[in-house]
Amino acid sequence: MELKRRNRVSAEFSMSSMTDIVFLLLIFFMLASTLVTSSALDLILPSSKVQSVKRQDVTVNISPDVRFSVGKQIVSEDQLESLILSETKGDPEAVVMLRADKSVPYEKVVLVMDIAYRNKLKMIAATNPK
Question: What is residue 22's predicted lDDT score, i.e. its pLDDT?
Fold first, then answer.
């Protein structure tokens, strides 16, 4: 009596576990890239021991050569207030993040702070954590 083997070795390779890993890596890098804050200007921020930003609606940058930018758009001092107001869209809870280089004259920082105060906007001064 001859017995036949029912268990045969399969020559196929299952790619399902590899595709799961690739999709998990793709999701990780997509989420991690949205958390990165990039700026068009290279600023050296003042240092502090604490940094916490919960919400930022508008980012105002002041470069070392005293150029203002709202988001990625470079503007003049005259256009600064109107562009900040258009970016906040009248939201009473809007938060303006001020990123000023440490070599910027204090009067330019106060100019942006004054715009936020007059329009009752909340303001955060960005710093570099130690």
Answer: 92
